[in-house]
Please model this.
Amino acid sequence: MKTVYNARHAAHAATREFFRGRLVPAFEVPARADYVLAAVQAAQLGEIVAPVDHGLAPLERVHAPAYLRFVQGAWAEWQALGGEGDAFPAVWPVRSLRSDVAPRSFAARMGLYSMDSGTPLTAGSWEAAYWGAQASLTGLDQVLGGERSAYVLTRPPGHHAGADFFGGYCFVNNAAVAAQAALDAGLQRVAILDVDYHHGNGTQAIFYERADVFYASLHGDPQTEFPFFLGHADETGAGAGLGFNANFPLPAGASNEAWFAALEAALERLQAYEPELLIVSLGVDTYGGDPISHFKLDRPEFSRLGQRLAAFGARTLFLQEGGYATEAIGHNVVAVLQGFEPRP
Model:
């Protein structure tokens, strides 16, 4: 299996984030990808390739151009205002407040284009996110070009990013960009399976009223787990997309048996859909030692996940999402990939 590695991920290097009301050292850091790369190399999974630049147009197929322009220029604006350190959102247009007019105020637009205070914008956020999307498109090229599978190693993650907002550490929704590009290349049905601990609210929302992408997610129950306001079982799609969204929320601390039962339920739905491509939002923050998540998977379970995805039988594109136990993330990712495609 080829790995598409976005070396420019390191440009996004937040030092702190807001977590449970306090400023703490950032969890989403460059070392995450460094450990995965080292594990991929040690396991000799296959060739490691650099992303090819496909330009901005594929990103604009799923993200509002005004939003992308904001993220691209936000750091320069912040610096021009004399900002110190990373930029954090602090005010949001909730409920009866208007969001259809973009204010001139930088602080207001930070809120307009974000969903939380836990996602700092840094000097290299746009560079890292842009090239993460290019890596995802390059991985898609590999699969559409005849490879059975490909793995995209990038950060920051993507599945919380909506069409016009960032949050949950995410700026560009890599899974959505790849899915739309696959459809634009001629595919008719694409499935996205999200196995991150946190529900991919951005991915769900982007395709919620469409039937050409089936989104299925198993995750921590949003009654208690981020992103809190999306990811419930009764969210099944709307309009043309009714029946093409499936959420399988599990309580914090759920057993591995319960997790795999949810996986089987999700794959049953996807099997009936008969996708031409499976995109896996591969978060390994389901690991029992993850500092901000509450499931119990370990390497044997991650290997089992890979084996089950291989048995699903579809062309598969793995995209890196979460996983914040830094020193374990590489081993956990490799366990999935080797389970999917064992070395001869």
In short: The chain has one domain: 2-63+123-340. Residues 2-63+123-340 form a domain with the Arginase; Chain A fold (CATH 3.40.800.20). Strands lie at 2-5, 16-19, 22-25, 48-49, 149-153, 190-194, 213-220, 245-250, 277-282, 316-320. The radius of gyration is 19 Å.
